[in-house]
Design goal:
By secondary structure, the protein is α/β, with parallel strands linked by helices. The chain contains ten helices and ten strands. The structure holds magnesium ion.
Length: 282
């Protein structure tokens, strides 16, 4: 297979991704999918979606879980509401994530993705141990479906994420690397982080962002169109090549409130990545 097929983050009925017809229009053949709402996770819905994918020549590389009640309004709210970290919703979300893994299996998809949330800093705390244990339970279910779980980066530094992966100690736990998130959350230089976690990277987002002008890690950075931010797309891609990563380059542009601009920016991103791919691989 050619290295780096260009993909896009897509959705059926939920989330920030573009719809399948947009991917098709842009000539894209690989997508990551934001898991649909529960009522659309049936076998019949999966079959219907697969038929549409087949007709469009599109394959699904990762299905991402997301949960009711999550908010990315600001960094503090994200920490309080996102992923498996919040204790009050952990059991219910764990159950829902196993259902999403089953839905991904119906799509023949070998990977599920997740923002696990802000992993507690104190690795000796009960909270940390409980999160490790919940993650193991999820991974065992995911493994039963022959899948990996790829954790989205950004909310932890590379070192803290690695420590967590080592603590969980399951061989189907990997990373979906998002360089822009490292900037948005102020959790570390993205290229340095990529080099540190490189051996666990099984899927990636191509997204760009500018650092917060002050209070990094407290105030959001700003997500921008690909190539307009502080990631440095050519260096990012060259680092992925050095790590031996040849999988999809999945474009994410989180401006679902402006579908026209989103489509325009993704179109420009496809061109940028296509040009860089030619430059880097020849
Ligand atoms: Mg992302």
């Amino acid at each position: 297979m050619e290295p780096w097929p260009i993909g896009v983050f897509a959705s059926v009925d939920a989330g920030l991704g573009v719809h399948l017809d947009v991917a098709q229009e842009l000539g894209i053949h690989t997508v990551q999918l934001h898991a649909p709402h529960v009522e659309s996770r049936s076998k019949a819905a999966a079959d219907a979606f697969l038929a549409r994918c087949k007709a469009a020549g599109i394959a699904v590389s990762v299905v991402f879980g997301g949960f009711h009640g999550e908010s990315y309004a600001d960094i503090a709210t994200t920490a309080r509401t996102v992923g498996l970290v919040p204790k009050e919703t952990r059991a219910a979300r764990l159950a829902e994530m196993t259902e999403i893994s089953d839905f991904a299996a119906l799509l023949g998809c070998g990977a599920v993705g997740l923002h696990i949330g802000f992993v507690p800093q104190d690795t000796a705390s009960e909270d940390y141990r409980n999160l490790v244990s919940a993650t193991r339970d999820l991974l065992d279910h995911v493994n039963g479906n022959g899948q990996t779980l790829n954790l989205e980066t950004g909310q932890e530094s590379a070192e803290h994420l690695l420590e967590f992966i080592h603590a969980v100690n399951r061989d189907n736990l990997f990373i979906n690397f998002d360089p822009a998130n490292m900037i948005l959350y102020g959790s570390g230089e993205p290229i340095d982080a990529l080099k540190k976690v490189g051996k666990y990277v099984r899927s990636v987002h191509c997204k760009d962002a500018k650092w917060a002008t002050q209070n990094r890690g407290v105030d959001w950075g700003c997500e921008v169109a690909l190539g307009q931010g502080d990631v440095g797309m050519e260096t990012y891609l060259r680092t992925l090549k050095d790590l031996g990563y040849t999988g999809p380059l999945t474009i994410e542009r989180e401006i679902a409130h402006d579908r026209e601009q989103q489509k325009k920016d993704i179109g420009a991103a496809v061109k940028l990545l296509t040009d860089l791919r030619t430059k880097i691989w020849g």
